[in-house]
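Interim report, section 4.2 (structural modelling).
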Amino acid sequence: MRVGFIGLGIMGRPMAKHLIAAGHQLTVWNRSRAGIEALVTAGAAEGASPADVASRSDVVITMVGDSPDVEEVALGERGIIHGVGEVFDREARIGDRGPRLVHIDMSTISPEVTRRIASEYARAHIEMLDAPVSGGETGAINATLSIMVGGKREIFERCRPLFEAMGRTVTYCGPIGAGQTVKLCNQVLVSVTNMAVCEALVLAKKAGVSPSVMLEAVSGGAASSWQLLNLAPKMIARDFRPGFKVWHQEKDLRLALEVAREAALPLPATALVSQLFASVHAAGFQDEGTQALVKALEKLGHVTVED
Ligand code: NAP
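Predicted structure of the assembly:
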């Protein structure tokens, strides 16, 4: 397929490379240069704007930041929606009745904003899928992401080869916005588990047991989790480089709490961990990885989990 890729950061860069490796023809655009250069070296063409990328693609994938970023790339002045006229001209010229433009947004954003963009697109005859991912930078690099997809099922099936090039578990979740809703459930699980990992580490240290020994002892048992195996060693080693940034996690928790508020649903643990991430942000660590959550628990307990 002719695929456009917009947003070449921690996640987008390796994901886009897998699509080239799977034989798709890629046109890329990124706000800053570094991502573009990495992909052009790997064999992609460079587009001049999101609209230009759309005009040269059957499917455009976005992997940007928050809801306003997707809105800007989709509907802004040089957005995807403005590339579609040329797509229709081309179809008319060659008599092609094949697929029209599909926008797959793989960022984590608001389900409500997703539905609003999709309804704007409907007037321009663009199809949209929301397909946020889980699995982090490692999952993106190894093409083992879990991908949760919302939108029309037939559009999902048409795009399945793209998902399979980037992920291992691909799940159709329901109509547009359903992928984002499932991703927010994922973020509740991930962040509350992260908080439990931090609490276990500060407890071990304060009670006189080596955090590394505690980690080794519990990792193979019922308490194991992705957060324990991947984040706890980084907390102990004081490695706060981002796989998943604190401010992205804060955004996801805000989105989960917004959806819960709309539904009059209390999520007490999510609200608490969201406040702890706010304190990590207030201390200036918003661009660090989510393992920096331990700094909030360390401050409360006057302890550090370094061995
Ligand atoms: P990142 O490293 O900060 O990359 C974001 C990319 O989007 C950058 O290339 C950035 O351009 C571009 N961008 C942001 N806002 C833009 C705008 N308004 N217009 C144009 N381009 C814009 O973030 P990431 O970690 O790859 O995460 C991307 C998305 O995936 C987020 O929604 C995040 O929540 C989600 N996610 C991340 C992970 C993870 O572990 N990292 C896991 C699952 C889901 P610049 O280069 O100019 O900054």
